[in-house]
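Input (Tetratricopeptide repeat protein):
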Amino acid sequence: MDLLEEYRRATFFFESGDPLGAARLLEPIVEAEPQNTAVRQLLARAYFNSAQLVGAEAQLRALIEHDPSDHYAHHVLGRTLERAGRFREALPHLRLAAAMKQHTDYEEAVHRVEEWLGKSEQH
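Output:
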């Protein structure tokens, strides 16, 4: 198996709106090259986009373990946890990403989850 060619195919699938197809191609590449963060990040995004939240969470936690300063991995992990309804777990990751890098999406995610948690505590 030519891993680079498979990665290119997976990227094409992902960008063409087929995250499931991308994930199928990426899984064996991550197995073969577990330290390749670009492949692992694309697999996490493919899982997230196909609502495979457990898989996305596992890949993102591996990325953060490898590089705790990866603001994007923290943001997407926070979004994954938010999407799973795990708002309290999501908020620290979202806040950390927003503190590490100024980005509108990061700030909006923090505000959205803080607002949701504030509303849930009032009921």
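Residues 68-123 form one domain.
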